Amino acid sequence: MWLELFSTHPEVIRVGTLYLQIVGPIYGFYGLGIALHFAMQGIGSVVLIVVANGVRLLASAVGALIAIYWFDLGTIGFFVAVAIGFCAFAGMAVNILLRVKKPANTAAVTA
């Protein structure tokens, strides 16, 4: 239904459906990673989470290239690489958040 908002071409619908079947169930992990990204912004420590998102992007791109050109998996390999990148980002984000230390100078705020 949503894909037809963009195109009614059968090949577009086929590839879009395949993407949603492979990557769609994994979007929760990406959402978790992004939510923790914003939490890290609130804490004031964003360097590692930005690096984690960069690693996700790099892992998805390299994984997709390997899947397509080495294993000849085509579109499915590309979508699986994107899904793996989303899972890796969520794992790195949780790990980073769990390792955050409380700031040493936590002076009380006076009104």
Features:
111 residues, mainly alpha, 4 helices, 0% strand
What does this structure look like?
The N and C termini lie far apart (54 Å). The protein has a domain at 25-98. It has helices at 10-22, 27-43, 47-70, 74-98. The chain is mostly helical. Helix 2 (27-43) runs parallel beside helix 4.
Proportion in β-strands: under 5%
Give the H and E element order: HHHH
Number of beta strands: 0
Mean pLDDT: 89
Low-confidence stretches: none
Distance between the termini: 54 Å
Secondary structural class: mainly alpha
Rg value: 19 Å
Number of separate helices:
4
Largest sheet at a glance? none
Task: Using the alpha-carbon principal axes, give the shape.
Answer: elongated
What is the percent of helical residues? Answer: over 70%
Per-chain topology:
Elements: H1 10-22, H2 27-43, H3 47-70, H4 74-98
Helix pairs in contact: 1-4, 2-4, 3-4
Describe the structure concisely.
The protein is mainly α. It has 4 helices and no strands.
